[in-house]
């Protein structure tokens, strides 16, 4: 049952990822990215990461993608124009990407232990209480530093995006 | 209906998750290299970050600890900050040059 769920959502993720790369209009790419993130959230749930799955849906598929779509709509971005000189790039690049994926998959398949299998419910430390305990016991300093990082990002975004003051 | 083979209804091997992560990362890298729209390039970066997150969670499952979950939580935070600043930069570029094609934003080249 785990395998068939994995295969379904992995197929959705790869299909949406391909669509992201192949579409020329940014809105189509953004919606494909939402599909990738949703199916990855289901895979996190299969791996026992309940907190991360919800954070993926709320932060990534919710907040960040809404920001992307806002900007696409604000700039009224249309489809890409056809390139003049880059026609050879996809034809040379697609086999290379396929070769890299194939070699990587082969190496992972060889290196991974045969007995490592994923059963739903076997990993019990992904709930918010365990994550919070570990976060505030062992990772307090990185957590506080990320708050400063967020503050810097907010100030930077406001400074960059404001109207010019004459 | 014949019974499904064991590889379908049994547990999924951990290596499948890692291979899916590699596939998504390669797709993101390809999009980063091939696309010419700045926003699509930016979304390809987000796809690569998501692929790495999947690897973190899969290894976290294998090791039986939730440190990988915390790392991917930090990756999400950094991605949110990066999206805010990056989209503000894109807005500024569009305001100054009225284009989203990365080939036309090449003042640093010469």
Description:
The complex is a heterodimer of chains A (166) and B (110). With 166 residues, chain A is mainly alpha-helical. Chain A folds into two domains: 2-78 and 90-124, Up-down Bundle (Four Helix Bundle (Hemerythrin (Met), subunit A)), CATH 1.20.120.1200; 127-166. Chain A is built from six helices and one strand. Chain A has helices spanning 2-22, 26-46, 50-75, 88-111, 128-138, 140-161; one strand spanning 117-118. In chain A, helix 1 packs antiparallel against helix 2 and helix 2 (26-46) runs antiparallel to helix 3. The longest helix of chain A has 26 residues, at 50-75. Chain A is globular and about 55 Å long. With 110 residues, chain B is mainly alpha-helical. Chain B has a domain at 38-97: Helix Hairpins (Orthogonal Bundle). In chain B, 75% of the residues lie in helices and 2% in strands. Chain B has helices at 6-9, 14-34, 38-63, 67-97; one strand at residues 12-13. In chain B, helix 2 packs antiparallel against helix 3. At the A-B interface, helix 1, helix 2, helix 3, helix 4 and strand 1 of A face helix 1, strand 1, helix 2, helix 3 and helix 4 of B. Strand 1 (117-118) of chain A pairs antiparallel with strand 1 (12-13) of chain B.
Highest CATH level, the class of one domain in chain B:
Mainly Alpha
Major β-sheet of chain A, in short? none
| Gyration radius of chain B, rounded | 19 Å
Query: What portion of residues of chain A belong to β-strands?
Result: under 5%
In whole angstroms, the N-to-C terminal distance of chain B is 67 Å
Q: What is the rounded distance between the termini of chain A?
A: 64 Å
Cα-atom radius of gyration of chain A: 20 Å
Strand fraction of chain B equals under 5%
The CATH topology label of one domain in chain B is Helix Hairpins
Low-confidence stretches of chain A: none
Q: What would you call the shape of chain A?
A: globular
CATH overall fold name of the largest domain in chain A: Four Helix Bundle (Hemerythrin (Met), subunit A)
Write the element-wise H/E pattern of chain A from the N-terminal end onward: HHHHEHH
Give, in order, the helices and strands of chain B: HEHHH
Supply the number of helical segments of chain B.
4
**How would you describe the shape of chain B?**
elongated
Largest sheet of chain B: none
Oligomer: heterodimer
Question: What's the total helix number of chain A?
Answer: 6
How many domain modules of chain A? Answer: 2
């Amino acid at each position: 049952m785990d395998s068939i769920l994995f295969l379904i959502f992995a197929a959705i993720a790869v299909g949406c990822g391909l669509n992201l790369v192949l579409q020329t209009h940014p809105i189509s790419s953004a919606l494909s990215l939402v599909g990738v993130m949703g199916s990855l959230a289901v895979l996190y749930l299969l791996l026992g990461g309940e907190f991360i799955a919800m954070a993926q849906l709320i932060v990534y598929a919710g907040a960040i993608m809404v920001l992307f779509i806002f900007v696409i709509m604000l700039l009224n971005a249309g489809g890409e124009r056809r390139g003049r000189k880059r026609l050879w790039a996809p034809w040379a690049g697609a086999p290379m990407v396929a070769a890299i994926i194939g070699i990587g998959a082969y190496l992972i398949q060889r290196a991974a232990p045969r007995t490592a299998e994923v059963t739903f419910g076997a990993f019990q430390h992904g709930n918010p209480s365990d994550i919070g305990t570990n976060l505030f016991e062992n990772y307090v300093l990185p957590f506080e530093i990320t708050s400063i990082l967020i503050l810097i990002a907010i100030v930077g975004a406001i400074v960059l995006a404001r109207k010019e003051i004459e | 209906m014949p019974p499904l083979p064991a590889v379908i209804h049994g547990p999924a091997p951990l290596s499948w998750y890692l291979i899916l992560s590699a596939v998504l990362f390669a797709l993101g890298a390809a999009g980063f290299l091939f696309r010419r729209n700045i926003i699509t390039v930016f979304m390809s970066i987000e796809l690569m970050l998501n692929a790495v997150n999947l690897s973190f969670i899969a290894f976290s499952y294998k090791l039986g600890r939730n440190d990988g979950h915390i790392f991917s939580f930090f990756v999400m935070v950094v991605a949110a900050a990066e999206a805010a600043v990056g989209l503000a930069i894109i807005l500024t570029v569009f305001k100054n040059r009225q284009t989203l094609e990365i080939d036309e934003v090449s003042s640093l080249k010469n």
